[in-house]
Structures are given as C-alpha cells and as structure tokens.
Amino acid sequence: MRLITSLIPSQTGTGTAIASDKIDVAVVIDVLRATSVATVAMAAGATEIVTCREISDARSRALPGAVDPESTAPSLLCGERECRPIDGFQFGNSPAEYTPALVAGKRLILTTTNGTRAVEVASAADSIMLASFLNLSAVIDAIMDADTVHVVCAGTNGDVTGEDVMLAGAIIDRCQARLGSALELDDASAIAKAWWHARQPTPSPASLAAAFSETAGGRNLIRVGYEADLARCAAIDTVPVVPVRTRKSPTGFTAR
C-alpha cells in the first residue's frame, strides 16, 4: 500500500481535487466534529449522509425529491458554521444530538465549516471513507486491500489542527503494524505518525480528550460551550461503522 497524507485540504495539490492519477480510497478526517458526527449518525441508523459545502446547497438538497426523485420525504438539515448550529437546521454538529430515536431511517444533509470541504476535495478518489477515533479500527480494516490511500485532514479554518493530525498518525501507525515494509509513506505521513507517538504514547479516551483541549479545534469548541464533545469524539473504537461513498453511488455516504 502507498499511503499519502494531506495535513490540510489545500495540500492535495489543487485545493479542489486529489492531485493523483488514481486514488483507491480517500480517508477524510475532521475529528472535531464532522466525521465523528457522521460515524455516530450512521451507527444510529441514518440511511444516508449527503455532504454539501454551502448552506444554500444543503437547503436545496433537503427538499423532497431533491436527492431521490422517488421520495417525497424531506431530508434533515444538519451542520454548523464556526462551531454553532445553523438557523433553521434540525441538527447541529454535536455527536450527542444524533440518537437512534431522531435519525434512524432518515437521510441527513450535512454542511460544516471544515469537514464537508475536505470531502469535496477528496471527491476524485474511487471511494471516500469518513474516519474518526470512534471508528478507527473499522477504518483500518476497510482500507487494508487498497493500493493507494490518501488521508485528507480537514484542519481548522485553513490551518493544520492537532486532533486531525493525531488521527492521521494513528491510522498510519496501525497500517504499518499490519503491513510492515509493504507500506510506503510520504513525508507528511511520517510527520503525522511521529506527532501521534509524541502526543499519545499510551492513548486512552481521557488522554485524547485532554490533548484535544490544547488544539485549535478543541479550543474553538470550548470557547462556544461544547467542551463535552471533546470526550465524545475521543471514545476510541466504540463504533464499528464506516461511512463510505463510492463513484458508483456518488450521492451520499452509507454505512459499511
């Protein structure tokens, strides 16, 4: 496997699509909080998650029949801007909101400040998987047969953010443990792995949540009253579900 990493979406080369001849799998990371929310929502029974970069696009996609012409049921609007819920949306961007009672059997239309932009950047890959610490082991299992994997960190407002780099490093570390010398890394991947080992020599949910509180993304959440989400997004390997979107069915993410 060849594994390459972009510590922010603009490092993909074009800023709008992965700059490579062929990427089998793009693994998109927005630990705080879009990919964690998507993981929780899929595990709670959401049937599909459609990501949109712009709020206006999300509103349009939520109209009855906009995603599925045969469906007359509206989709649920979800997401945030600058960590806060969007006026008129049914859900914000906290994992605590996405319970089976509220989202099971529903299609979700999601737009966020950073995460859904990273999904758009990764759209040239054959398939896109959404990774969080919650589904870390499930993601590793899902990418093992890929020849080329591109890890795309969402970052925070265009800058590198520590929580995303830590997850990239954890993914790389586990891939290397499984594949050994059969894994080829670029320099950014090696940097992410080193950062993961430096910050989390003995990772646990508590140590992760503490590390999140020191990152740009974590400080932003604390500032607007969402500190409890740091622990929710640090619950390693609690959700065995991976949201996946493929070129063959490019509308939205479904559970794997």
UniProtKB/TrEMBL annotation:
Protein name, UniProt field: Probable 2-phosphosulfolactate phosphatase
EC number: 3.1.3.71
Obligatory cofactor(s): Mg(2+)
Taxonomic classification: Bacteria, Pseudomonadati, Planctomycetota, Planctomycetia, Pirellulales
EC class name: hydrolase
Record field: catalytic activity: (2R)-O-phospho-3-sulfolactate + H2O = (2R)-3-sulfolactate + phosphate
Gene3D superfamilies assigned: ComB-like
Family: Belongs to the ComB family.
Keywords from the named record: Hydrolase, Magnesium
Listed PANTHER family: 2-PHOSPHOSULFOLACTATE PHOSPHATASE-RELATED
One MF annotation (Gene Ontology) recorded for this entry: magnesium ion binding
Superkingdom of origin organism: Bacteria
Pfam families, A to Z: 2-ph_phosp (PF04029)
InterPro entries registered for this protein in UniProt: ComB-like (IPR005238), ComB-like_sf (IPR036702)
Recorded coiled-coil stretches: none
